[in-house]
Amino acid sequence: MKGLAMELAYTEETARLRCPESGGVWERLSCWDAGLSASLRLVDSRWRRLGKTVAHSGDAVFWLAAAAVMFFLPGTPTWQEVALRLVQAIVGAGVVAAGLKRLIRRPRPDGPPDGLYPIHDHYSLPSGHAVRVAAIATVLGPLIPGWLIAVLALWAAAVALSRVLLGVHYLLDVLSGIVLGGMVGLVLMLVG
What we know:
This protein has helices at residues 12-15, 25-40, 45-56, 60-71, 78-104, 117-120, 128-140, 146-165, 171-191. The chain has 192 residues and is mostly helical. It has one domain (44-191).
């Protein structure tokens, strides 16, 4: 079973990482977050490929294409409602995430670029993927059966965690993204 084990970047160096005693709460929290996130980074290429697949399943392009197909499906208006909710969640999450990233300006973790994210989006807090998938799961919740809600919630958590495992976000980026995405989804449900 050794061949199936995930290899993380946890090393003696990351275990000994100490944050300065001085500085504000945000500096100490950021240092702790950076150390923990670095130790969670996947090293093994097989697991990284799986992580990339999971991460990309939360890409906006994929969900917008799915919404376009659903909107034009013949039959009940339910597909159109799902499509409209998806588009609202994606746009709402995008506006919130982009606005906060520009305001907070927390740099992404150091390391090799994994895809286009670090090239076109230099900031990490909050994770746009985490905001998006949490908003999608929240707005679709009332429209789907209970067992599918559980699957959707697990998928959203997997997408968010994959961003940390790939080293393109810190753990606090995705945790705050999940909370923000849930709030975006709730607001959209209240006004829509």
